[in-house]
Amino acid sequence: MKRACKALEGRHDFINFSKQNKEEEKTVRNLLLASMSIDGDFIIFDFKSRAFLRQQIRRMVAKIMEIGLGIINFQDFLDLFNPARSISYQPADPFGLILWDITYGTSVQPIIDQKSKDRMDTYFREKELIYVSKTKLFRLLQHDNVC
Q1: What is the pLDDT of residues 6-26, one digit of tens each?
Q2: Of 6, 48, 58, 146, which has the most beta carbons under 10 Å away?
Q3: What is the distance of C-alpha 91 from the center of its chain?
């Protein structure tokens, strides 16, 4: 699995490690870092690049895990770098995958889209009302305060 991570580093065509779009998209990326470590029951992957393709991380993780499970061998993994072959497969489940950090530098200035912010605020207020009501009901049930 660590060998597969090292193979991902560098400049490659990652078309077989991304969700295929109908429109043509540049799929060559330079992966600056790809590593894995184990901490107790957790497998920790670190990937660093200036840009990623859609589902790239999830698909890389899926194939690295398949190597670890013996489903594919290292050569099968390397075959994914051949852009002439279109290889379709399911990405890893996003559960447990965490985007830890994004660095834009000083060249990107974020703007707030008020409509999106308002939609987000409304969504979380609605969820809060639902969960606050459920929490109160459960507390009442736990303490037999309900007739």
Answers
A1: 999 999 999 999 998 777 779
A2: 58
A3: 9
**Calculated CA dihedral for residues 72, 32, 38, 77, nearest 10 degrees:** 0
Contact 59, 91 (CB under 8 A): yes
Cα(137)–Cα(87) distance, rounded to whole angstroms? 51
> What residue has token string 């690049």?
49
Residues 61, 65: Cα–Cα separation, whole Å? 6
Against a cut of 0.85, is the pTM above it?
no
Q: Are 29 and 49 in contact (CB under 8 A)?
A: yes
Distance in angstroms (rounded) separating the CA atoms of residues 60 and 40: 22
**Which residues pair with residue 33 across a beta bridge?**
48
